[in-house]
Each structure stands twice: as structure tokens, then as C-alpha cells.
What we know:
Blueprint: E1 2-5, H1 20-27, E2 32-36, H2 47-52, E3 56-58, H3 61-67, E4 70-72, E5 90-93, H4 101-109, E6 113-116, H5 131-148, E7 170-174, H6 178-189, E8 193-198, H7 201-210, E9 216-219, H8 222-231, E10 234-237, H9 252-256, E11 263-266, E12 287-290, E13 293-296, H10 306-327, H11 329-335, H12 337-340, E14 343-346, E15 349-350, H13 353-359
Parallel strand pairs: 1-2, 1-4, 2-3, 4-5, 5-6, 7-8, 7-10, 8-9, 10-11, 11-13
Antiparallel strand pairs: 6-14, 12-13, 14-15
Helix pairs in contact: 5-6, 5-10, 10-11
Amino acid sequence: MIIGCPKEIKIQEYRVGLTPAGVREVKKFGHTVLVQKGAGVGSGIPDSAYVEFGAQIVDTAEEVWAKSDLVVKVKEPIAPEYPLMRAGQVLYTYLHLAPAPELTKVLLDRQVTAIAYETIQLKNGSLPLLVPMSEVAGRMAVQVGAVYLEKHNGGKGVLLGGVPGVKPAKVVILGGGIVGTHAAKMAMGLGADVTILDRSLDRLRYLDDIFFGRCKVVFSDAVSIRDQVRAADLLIGGVLIPGASAPKLVSRQLVSEMEAGSVIVDVAIDQGGCIETVHATTHENPTFVVDGVVHYSVANMPGAVARTSAFALTNATLGYLVKMAQHGALETLKADPEFRLGLNCFKGKCTHAAVASSLGLEYVDPMKLL
């Protein structure tokens, strides 16, 4: 097998899909690894580090895509990469197809075997390849929220942790999963007044237990969302339905009822966002204002801390990559039902039920095609 790692080309995306340690692991099975020149530089990894562990450095993305049986990336392909994909080629990356009908059509038309990190799901419901980037994004949400609460950035001029004699900022987090938990850790660490909303009573009990009551936990319904959002200085959206579009929990009307200078950070933007007023932004132009409220909705937040993110990502994705290197991608998909949930497109068919439902496509059980 020839495994290829091209350089990411999304705006200000500095992560890389494979670290030198990952190269070393797949090389054990006799495979060839092609890495595009400069692919790791944004993550602080020089080409020489890849060569040291047996990778071949190639000059262009076109060469990586043309020669590789399996392409490992970080982010979904964008328009310049569409013509480079070919039938039967395995693409292993974050895809987030529910809000991306154009990309989905390309993957189906070109009959790519598209495996999405974010929909691989274990029996306990966890998403092992999404977890590390959710951890990063949850922590970053508080950092960027604190920055945009500053007056010169359009915020209301509130210090997240306050000072003695002055109350701290109120941080409201929608969703008590990985994003919400890590956002809460950061916000509480800075001294903020933190509330998490979630619909799972078991999860709320767990959060109340691990945070020793320092973080308020509230059952998420329309009334509690309304009351908490109105009072928030910083609102963080961290709601996820695996593979599907994020539910819109906060309406345009409710955003208009927030105080001017409040900040929204919607981490769910990769799946369309859970705030009605958001649209995807970039690290170059990360914010916009609606009804006086600053919105931050960068679709690749962890790309800003590329070194941390790249190593955390390979730690999570490498196990399945090694399995594919050992047994082949199709055999691994056949044998592992949890990994098979990552298969979003195969032989021109949509093979993930939530993606198909979100895009109005026919769902085909992948076992009928494998």
C-alpha cells in the first residue's frame, strides 16, 4: 500500500495528518509513505524528521494524490483537491459532510472510499477520533471568548474571572460532552461563573460530581436555554449529533436579547452550528457581529494551535491507520463495525445514515457493498 499525506491547503490550516511517529508505525508493515514537501512545517515538523523514519518527500500534492492508495489528511478536501481524488482511493480525514452537499456529491461521483474521523463510534457512544480535537476546541473556545470580550475587540469589556469586588463573567455552555467539559475546565480555571446545559441527567450528575458543584449544571429545555443565554457574557455552543447537522438551539430572536458586546463561540460550526445566526468563518476573518453580539465560528479552530493538535490527532487516528496498513482498508471495514461507522461514502453511495438523512440522500448499508 502507498499511503500519502498532502499539505493542508485550507486557509490558515497548519496541522498535518501524520507525524513522523505515525510514519514509523506504518513502515513496519513494509508500506510506502509519501509526504508532500513542507506538509509538517506548520506543526513544527521539518521534512527531515519524516525522512528519518522512512517517508519519501514529494514536491506536489498532485503527486501525493496520484500515487497514493490511501490519503490521510486533517480537514475535508476543498475545491482545488476535488479533481485529484479517484475511484477506489481511500480518504481518511475529518469530513463533516452533513452541512457540505457539494463535497458529498464530489465524493459520491468520484466513488471515493471516504472514511470520516468524526463518525467512528465505539459501543459506549464515544467518538475516539473526534475527542482530541474536541478537547482542543473546548479549551480554545474560552481563550478566544476571553479575547473577544475585550472592549477593543467589540466585546463588553469584561474580564472573564473578574477581580475581588467585581463579579466574573458569566459563561454558558450548551452541551456537556467533550467540548463542554473542557471549556468548563478552562473557564473555571480563569475564575468565571460557569453553567453547562445538557439533556442527559446522567451527564449532568457526572459533571456536578467531577466539578464538586463549582460549575452549575442545568437541564437543557427551551426555558432554561432562554434564561441562560439572555444572561451570558460568553456563550459556547458544543452540541453534537454524530454525523448529523447540529440542532439549532438558539434562535436569531434570542441572540437579539443578549446584551451588546456579549460573545458567542460556536464550536459546533463544523456540523452547521447550534446558533441560528452563525456561519463559518476563517482564522483570517474570525468574527462578525449580529445585533451587537460578537460571533466567532471558525470551522477549524484547532488549526491555530497546530503543533498540539497534530500530535494529539495522530495519537488518536494512528491505531486505525495501522490496522488498515496490516489488513487493508476494506478488510478492516468489514471486520470492525465501530470503524465501519466512519465510512461515509463508498462506491458512489452514502453509507452513513445520519449523513444521508441530513442531506436527503439514500442510505445504503455498507455491508451490502463491501
